[in-house]
Amino acid sequence: MDLDAIRAFALLGIFLVNVQTFADPASLLGVPSPTDAAGTAAHALVAGLFMGKFYILFSFLFGYSFALLWQATARRAAAAGRPDDFAAVAMRRFAGLFVLGLAHGLLLFTGDILLTYALAGMLLLGLRYIGTRPARVTAGIIVGVIGAGMVGIAALMGLALSAPEFESILQGELAGTAELLSQPYAEFLIGMYPSTLASMVFVQGPIAFAAFLIGLSAAKDRWFERLTRRTLVRVALVGAAVGLPGAIATAWAYVGLHPLVGSTAAFGLAALTGPFLTAAYVAALLLLFRSGAGRRVRSALVPAGQMALSNYLGQSVVMVMVYTDYGLDLANRVHPFAALGICAGVFAVQLLLSAVWMRRFARGPVEGLLRALTYWQRPSWRRGAPGSEPGAAADG
Fold first, then answer.
1. Which of 45, 73, 94, 391 sits 20 to 30 Å CA-CA off 220?
2. Half-sphere exposure of residue 372, counting CA atoms within 13 Å on the CB side?
């Protein structure tokens, strides 16, 4: 139950970050629209406390669940007296995520992460026997290289901005992309998709894969089963001690520097320090869940976490209906703080609807379809169906 609750918490954080590109599409280009002091504060808040933290957490949980799926598939194979077919099971699952991600990116949200997860998941499948220590070392190297590289690129961009030639090239690129922003949303998605897909696969993708490795390592070492209160307090304190200064630096870079330089530097700083703050968030949540009030919070979050894929896609549907010409077309007309408030309201509704749904069914709407593809069987959402026993959440 803890993992499902944490997954729902990550879902909220991702929502708060993703809404920025809907409420202010220019932020996708690294040049958020000018706003008042309160709006700047909202951008700084999101950059410092949320950006680069929650997709890392979601990726960690993906790696952890990958290990649970591996174990569940082995148990099913042993019970049926047949060879373990985990590779085929996992590849069907990743194929389903790839198709979902492609449709999501082209029809709803250009910043889709599912397709990237599918590609990185295939790489994880090939490396699933990696030792826990090599996995952690590899993850650290990946994050360090990407984070430091982005900070370095930002520094070079800052120097290059003083050159008239670079400024001219930059303005030309921005003008071309600004033209896309003026197009109907469907055309904007198709036009932006190649560049955002490249960014997702080659920049965010490696960091997500690093988090996959940490999640896989955590599952193999049974981290969550061995956590004590003392360990959680220590993780929360150390994570906050490193992560909060990093969050302040990230927020300052995002709102205080040239937009393109600042967004690049902020991403790099978030990659380097975000995992510490993410660990602090998780430790604080797990400590909260051990209290009476915290158990009620956990119970409220669990259903949404059990159908996180459906809720993730549902958030995109709501955002396109509110902010694009698919619906109300309120982009650039909603204050950044109001946009965060809308997210909080939508998430509260998702918690309620998820609780109602999961009282009647064993898995979420999209989760049922993905599970059917994963195990190559007829879709089933009802309780009591094969695979709906406790612990089946590992396979969706």
1. 94
2. 14
Q: What is the rounded CA–CA span in Å between residue 132 and residue 135?
A: 5
Question: Is 57:282 a contact under the CB 8 Å cutoff?
Answer: yes
The whole-number pLDDT of residue 235 equals: 96
Determine the pLDDT at residue 166.
62
| pLDDT in the model for residue 170 | 60
- C-alpha–C-alpha distance, residues 86 and 136, integer Å: 23
- Closest by alpha carbon to 47, among 206, 271, 312, 332? 271
DSSP code of residue 27: G
Map out the domains of the chain as residue ranges: 2-395
Q: Say how far residue 238 (Cα) sits from the centre of its chain.
A: 23
Cβ-contact 373, 96 below 8 angstroms: yes
What end-to-end distance do the CA atoms of the chain give, in Å?
A: 14
Residue 388: its pLDDT value, please?
Answer: 40
Between the CA of residue 258 and those of 30, 86, 200, 267, what are the distances in Å? 9, 48, 22, 14
Report pLDDT for 169. 57
Q: What does the angle CA 207 – CA 210 – CA 211 come to, to the nearest 5 degrees? A: 90
pLDDT for residue 10: 96
Q: Give the list of residues 6+ apart from residue 119 with CB closer than 8 angstroms, or none.
A: 94, 98, 201, 205
Give pLDDT, residue 173: 56
pLDDT at residue 391, as a whole number: 35
Q: What is the DSSP letter of 25?
A: G
Please compute Rg for the chain using Cα positions. Answer: 21
Per this entry, what is the length of the chain?
396
User: CB burial class (10 A; 0-12, 13-18, 19+) of residue 309?
Assistant: buried
| Distance (Å, whole) CA 396 – CA 390 | 12
* pLDDT beneath 50: ranges in the chain: 387-396
| 89 in Cβ contact with 83 (< 8 Å) | no
The residues near 90 (Cβ < 8 Å, ≥ 6 apart) are 66, 69, 70, 121, 125
Q: Which structure tokens are listed for 303? A: 């259903």
